């Protein structure tokens, strides 16, 4: 790791093979509102000897690490990693926003970027009687809850819904409880590579103790990190949408109560663009009786980012323009959708915030896929509960 | 007979409240044949200040010297040594204030006086001195005893004792001679700067909606502002919030911010550290919202809600709006 | 400019549930998160900024067990040059004045133009170790410093007074300042940065090394003693409002109306 660090960024990321075609900037969701020009970042990072003046450019924090640039690059480069590399250098100098420092400190000390007490991580599940995965036999399902779902009261609803769904399907599963720690996905993208490794090691220790058949995550961000970035993790890692898709396909769930609602689906970047999970969530929505589905104009690979990733939960960004989440909500309202279904804690939070900031509380709500599923399992008496 | 001395604290031509708080406590500790002393250090031009404290002490020992006009710990320390050699007090009280914190620990070290700081209660039993002080931001109290010695020293937390109804006794004033001796130029008072005058004056507000670190993020300030607007009040804060520049420094309540006395003070996500309490405990009604039932703020609040402020705030704002139509 | 910064490792107690230890003279710190005392973090940053402007050397000193190496390493990663840990069973039971004596014994032999401490420690909150230390070293000092300007060998500092008032004071070096939070914006210390200094040696000094006798330190050398800890009565004044969120809000509005809280 440290050796990698010494290698110049341009070499490490093979930036000399960039042909400056500009497809990255063309697809970059924040480029319309931010001075961040990803093509130029790649260019300058490969020609400059001295990156320090350049790298402290504040707009580098505008990047949501959605990775559209990497998907579009004809040379197979990862421009997003240049941003992360530059952030790493800023982190080493220590000159970063207080809000970022707080998030990193929180993850270091308490295992979650909100700095909430470790021993309160499993409080959300207190009344749910979920087995401790560390005491289960090997080969079971480990539910990796995620910091947001553990501590944020709104996101806790996703976790509670998923528990209902798993129980309805009679799937035995366990959680790590207070032993779970941040997956480090956002930490790594904020440029704190050392801390990411530390968190990874801690989770890996527990994973090998539990030795599960599959790890199911609430967040696409956790899924992505565990699946693609955790060195040496061989266990299957699934986002809940993938796991529940399996359950539904095997007819383990009985979706009885109709949810008569016109909905659309917002693709989380870390689920869709970065991991190709486009169909499962749509298929699940399609299984819900009474539901009417309509697609966003920009969907699947072209989906618009909600601006919640890449550390943006902890820093505003410089872009003065309209938030992309607001664009998203307005589009959905215009389509006549009564709800945007999504499948990521950050998307849920940014979109719900945008519902408020655009004053659309009366017109539309944001529902997580698991909440939607829990509604149809339960009967409509409880559906009002979810918003 | 025991003698309890209080170091008078004054600044910019005024006796500071802490002086009377300490005098009040000294009288409470003193038996009928014990003596309460006031120790005054200042310039000749400040003699009229002495008249404000001397009625509340059996003896006032005063040093007047131009060098003592403004507080400078090296000179004050030297003058105080001269006074103490005349005062033969058993116990000396100073404030745990910017004044006392800049002087007391040095004096204790220099004169080998048993000392503890920031006490909220004092007991004298069989000649022994026991004090209560708080630790872990007020979550734990400690009973501390001071060893036997000719003179012992305590610094007292501002606001720990009432400043009202300090007994009047026939006070005698004695001047003590002291002259500048030593190299005091190494520390020199230059000036005072007033806090910047901000857009709103929280000291004038009738209703304060005050946010602490529990507000978590600058982005959440507007949620508190909404309640303040609905109530016709103003948003204030604890120091971490001002440190993070989520609100301007002028909005800060507490010992290093403003002291406020609104009709209603609503503390949201404020733990109630004493430096904060010191600035707001004078509020007629204090309402605290905190998810930690053990938060010290509940010890001075009149009403409390133990819950997530992010749930309470919107609910409350809505109800207030409903009421106002 | 040679600067010495005194740093303490303290448990974070803001969100923690505190339990007293068996002897009821301390708290049970099992499972607690420790970090550098917040004030000391600002002091280290202040030292680094002075060094960046003036050149020189920063030595950080901490008294305490092996775990204190964590905060010393963090300070090294932040930009300090040397670290010293003072440790001895004989230090146990030292009050703040005895602690200052221990620090003084270590510091007097290290060249210094400036010593920085925090205003107070987050845990014991004595708020005076720095000033006592200055007296023992015979240095001019200023407490509660919120701004430092350097002019030759004179420091012009702001001291934070009550009520939003500040005092401007000149202090001639060598001197000691106690640093108040908010004086600067402490930089981030990365894990990689800490790893880079992992092998850096941290000097250890015992009571013997510092020529401290048992009479000066520990319980014997302390003129104050903790008799016991207890929990202050909490919630005594506060009437806790219960019910559903709606009922709570309803009750609150009633109270606000009664108490003149709705203009
Ligand atoms: C010399 C000196 C002067 C000082 N002057 C001042 C001063 O003037 N003013 C001042 O305020 N401080 C001052 N301080 C700092 C003081 O010691 C405390 O550190 C500070 O008051 C703590 O602020 P807080 O209560 O906002 O934060 P914390 O102590 O961190 O408390 C946050 C509280 O929020 C609660 N909380 C968190 N999340 C939620 C939620 N979602 N819902 C409900 N509750 C929640 C927590 O339970 C906790 O009780 C001074 C310190 C010193 C040494
Ligand atoms: C009566 C009494 C008995 C005590 N008994 C014990 C005991 O038995 N065992 C025990 O472990 N503690 C004990 N303590 C606590 C210990 O003595 C405190 O660390 C000491 O009193 C300093 O006070 P403080 O930490 O509140 O420092 P403050 O005066 O609040 O701190 C100001 C600054 O001093 C410096 N500082 C303080 N402590 C250290 C340190 N250890 N290393 C480097 N710099 C430092 C820091 O710069 C800090 O910001 C006792 C305290 C008291 C008052």
Report the portion of residues of chain C in β strands.
25-35%
- Main sheet strand line-up of chain C: 9-8-7-10-6-1-4-5-11
Greatest contact between two chains = B-C, 105 and 86 residues
Examine the secondary-structure arrangement and name the CATH architecture of chain C: 3-Layer(aba) Sandwich
Listing every helix as H and every strand as E from the N terminus to the C terminus, the arrangement of chain A reads: HHHHHHHHEHHEHHEHEHEHEHEHEH
CATH homology superfamily of the largest domain in chain A? AF0625-like
Helix proportion range of chain C: 25-40%
Which ligands, by name, code or SMILES, are bound?
flavin-adenine dinucleotide
Query: CATH top level of chain C?
Result: Alpha Beta
The gyration radius over C-alpha positions of chain A equals 21 Å
Q: What's the SSE pattern of chain C?
A: EEEHEHEHEHEEEEHEEEH
Mean pLDDT of chain A: 91
How many beta-strand elements of chain A? 8
**Total beta strands of chain C:** 13
Provide structural commentary:
The complex is a heterotrimer of chains A (387), B (325) and C (263). Chain A has 387 residues and is α/β, with parallel strands linked by helices. Chain A has helices at 2-6, 9-12, 23-27, 38-47, 52-55, 68-72, 79-93, 98-110, 147-151, 153-168, 185-189, 193-210, 220-229, 240-249, 279-287, 324-334, 345-357, 369-378; strands at residues 141-144, 173-175, 214-217, 236-239, 261-265, 291-293, 339-342, 365-368. In chain A, helix 4 (38-47) crosses helix 7. Chain A starts with a helix and ends in a 9-residue tail after the last helix. The radius of gyration of chain B is 22 Å and the shape is elongated. In chain B, helix 5 (221-231) runs parallel beside helix 9 (309-324). Chain B is of the alpha/beta class and 325 residues long. A 9-stranded mixed β-sheet of chain B has the order 9-8-7-10-6-1-4-5-11, with helices on both faces. Chain B folds into 2 domains: 3-175, 3-Layer(aba) Sandwich (Rossmann fold), CATH 3.40.50.620; 202-324, TPP-binding domain (Rossmann fold), CATH 3.40.50.1220. Chain B has helices at residues 17-29, 47-53, 73-87, 104-111, 221-231, 239-243, 274-280, 297-300, 309-324, and strands at residues 3-7, 10-11, 14-15, 35-42, 59-64, 91-95, 115-125, 128-135, 140-146, 152-156, 172-175, 187-193, 207-211, 234-237, 264-268, 285-289, 303-305. In chain B, helix 2 (47-53) links the parallel strand 4 (35-42) and strand 5 (59-64). Chain C is an alpha/beta fold and 263 residues long. Chain C has one domain: Rossmann fold (3-Layer(aba) Sandwich), CATH 3.40.50. In chain C, strand 8 and strand 9 (166-172) form a beta hairpin. The radius of gyration of chain C is 22 Å and the shape is globular. The termini of chain C are far apart. The relative contact order of chain C is 0.17. Chains in contact: A-B, A-C, B-C. Chains A and C meet through helix 7, helix 8 and helix 12 of A and helix 5 of C. Bound molecules: flavin-adenine dinucleotide (FAD) (2 copies). One flavin-adenine dinucleotide sits between chains B (137, 212-214, 238-240, 252-257, 269-271, 273, 275-276, 279, 289-292, 295, 308-310) and C (14, 119-120, 144).
């Amino acid at each position: 790791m440290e050796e990698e660090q010494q290698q110049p960024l341009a070499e490490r990321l093979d930036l000399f093979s960039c042909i400056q075609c500009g497809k990255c900037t063309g697809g970059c969701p924040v480029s319309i509102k931010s001075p961040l020009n990803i093509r130029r970042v790649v260019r300058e990072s490969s020609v400059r000897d001295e990156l320090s003046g350049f790298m402290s450019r504040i707009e580098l924090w505008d990047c949501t690490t959605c990775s559209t640039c990497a998907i579009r690059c004809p040379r197979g480069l990862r421009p997003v990693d240049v941003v992360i590399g530059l952030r790493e250098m800023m982190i080493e100098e220590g000159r970063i926003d207080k809000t970022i420092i707080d998030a990193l400190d929180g993850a270091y000390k308490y295992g979650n970027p909100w700095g909430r007490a470790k021993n309160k991580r499993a409080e959300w599940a207190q009344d749910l009687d979920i087995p401790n995965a560390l005491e289960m036999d090997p080969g079971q399902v480990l539910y990796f809850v995620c910091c947001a779902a553990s501590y944020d009261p709104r996101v806790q609803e996703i976790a509670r819904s998923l528990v209902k769904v798993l129980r309805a399907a009679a799937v035995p599963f366990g959680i790590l409880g207070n032993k779970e720690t941040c997956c480090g996905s956002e930490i790594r993208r904020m440029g704190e590579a050392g801390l990411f490794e530390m968190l990874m090691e801690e989770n890996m220790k527990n994973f090998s103790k539990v030795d599960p058949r599959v790890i199911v995550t609430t967040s696409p961000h956790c899924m992505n990190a565990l699946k693609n970035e955790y060195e040496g993790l061989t266990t299957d890692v699934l986002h809940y949408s993938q796991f529940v898709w399996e359950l539904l396909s095997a007819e383990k769930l009985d979706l009885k109560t109709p949810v008569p609602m016109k909905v659309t689906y917002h693709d989380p970047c870390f689920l869709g663009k970065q991991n190709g999970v486009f169909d499962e969530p749509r298929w699940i929505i399609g299984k819900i009786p009474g539901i009417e589905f309509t697609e966003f104009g920009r969907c699947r690979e072209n989906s618009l980012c909600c601006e919640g990733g890449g550390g943006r939960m902890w820093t505003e960004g410089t872009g003065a323009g309209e938030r992309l989440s607001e664009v998203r909500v307005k589009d959905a309202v215009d389509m006549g959708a009564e709800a945007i279904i999504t499948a990521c804690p950050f998307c849920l939070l940014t979109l719900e915030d945008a519902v408020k900031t655009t004053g659309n509380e009366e017109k539309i709500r944001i529902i997580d896929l698991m909440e939607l599923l829990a509604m149809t399992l339960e009967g409509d008496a409880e559906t009002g509960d979810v918003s | 007979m025991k003698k309890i001395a209080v170091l008078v604290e004054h600044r910019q031509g005024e006796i500071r409240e802490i002086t009377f708080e300490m005098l009040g406590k000294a009288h409470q500790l003193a038996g009928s044949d014990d003596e309460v002393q006031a120790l005054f250090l200042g310039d000749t031009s400040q003699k009229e200040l002495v008249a404000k404290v001397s009625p509340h002490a059996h003896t006032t020992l005063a040093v007047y010297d131009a060098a003592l006009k403004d507080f400078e710990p090296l000179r004050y320390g030297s003058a105080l040594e001269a006074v103490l050699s005349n005062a033969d007090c058993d116990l000396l009280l100073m404030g745990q204030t910017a004044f006392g914190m800049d002087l007391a620990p040095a004096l204790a070290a220099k004169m080998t006086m048993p000392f503890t700081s920031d006490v909220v209660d004092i007991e004298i039993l069989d000649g022994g001195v026991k004090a209560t002080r708080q630790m872990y931001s007020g979550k734990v109290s400690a009973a501390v005893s001071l060893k036997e010695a000719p003179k012992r020293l305590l610094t007292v937390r501002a606001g720990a004792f009432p400043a009202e109804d300090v007994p009047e006794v026939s006070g005698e004033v004695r001047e003590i001679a002291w002259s500048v001796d030593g190299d005091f130029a190494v520390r020199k008072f230059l000036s005072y700067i007033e806090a910047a005058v901000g857009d709103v004056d929280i000291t004038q507000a009738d209703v304060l909606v005050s946010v602490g670190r529990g507000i978590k993020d600058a982005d959440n300030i507007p949620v508190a502002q909404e309640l303040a607007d609905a109530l016709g009040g103003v948003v204030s804060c604890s120091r971490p919030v001002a440190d993070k520049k989520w609100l301007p420094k002028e909005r800060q309540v507490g010992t290093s911010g403003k002291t406020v006395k609104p009709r209603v003070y609503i503390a949201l996500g404020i733990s109630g550290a004493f430096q904060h309490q010191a600035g707001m405990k004078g509020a007629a009604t204090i309402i605290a919202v905190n998810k930690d039932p053990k938060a010290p703020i509940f010890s001075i609040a009149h009403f409390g809600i133990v819950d997530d402020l992010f749930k309470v705030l919107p609910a409350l704002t809505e109800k207030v709006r409903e009421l106002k139509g | 400019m040679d600067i010495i910064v005194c740093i303490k490792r303290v448990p974070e107690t803001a969100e923690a549930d505190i339990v007293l230890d068996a002897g009821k003279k301390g708290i049970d710190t099992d499972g607690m998160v420790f970090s550098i005392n917040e004030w000391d973090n600002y002091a280290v940053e202040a030292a680094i900024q002075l060094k960046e402007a003036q050149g020189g050397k920063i030595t950080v000193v901490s008294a305490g067990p092996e775990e204190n190496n964590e905060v010393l390493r963090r300070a090294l990663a932040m930009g300090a040059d040397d670290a010293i840990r003072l440790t001895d069973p004989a230090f146990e039971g030292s009050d703040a004045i005895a602690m200052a004596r221990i620090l003084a014994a270590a510091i007097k032999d290290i060249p210094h133009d400036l010593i920085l401490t925090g205003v107070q420690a987050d845990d014991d909150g004595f708020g005076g170790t720095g000033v006592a230390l200055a007296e023992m070293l015979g240095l001019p000092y200023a407490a509660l410093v919120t701004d430092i300007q350097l002019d030759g060998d004179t420091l012009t500092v702001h001291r934070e007074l009550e009520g939003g008032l500040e005092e401007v004071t000149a202090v001639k070096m060598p001197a000691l300042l106690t640093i108040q939070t908010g004086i600067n914006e402490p930089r981030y210390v990365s894990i990689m940065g800490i790893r880079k200094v992992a092998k850096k040696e941290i000097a250890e000094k015992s009571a013997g090394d510092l020529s401290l006798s048992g009479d000066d330190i520990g319980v014997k050398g302390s003129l104050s003693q903790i008799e016991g800890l207890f929990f202050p009565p909490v919630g005594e004044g506060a009437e806790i409002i219960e019910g559903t969120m709606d009922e709570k809000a309803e009750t609150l509005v009633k109270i606000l109306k009664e108490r003149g809280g709705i203009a």
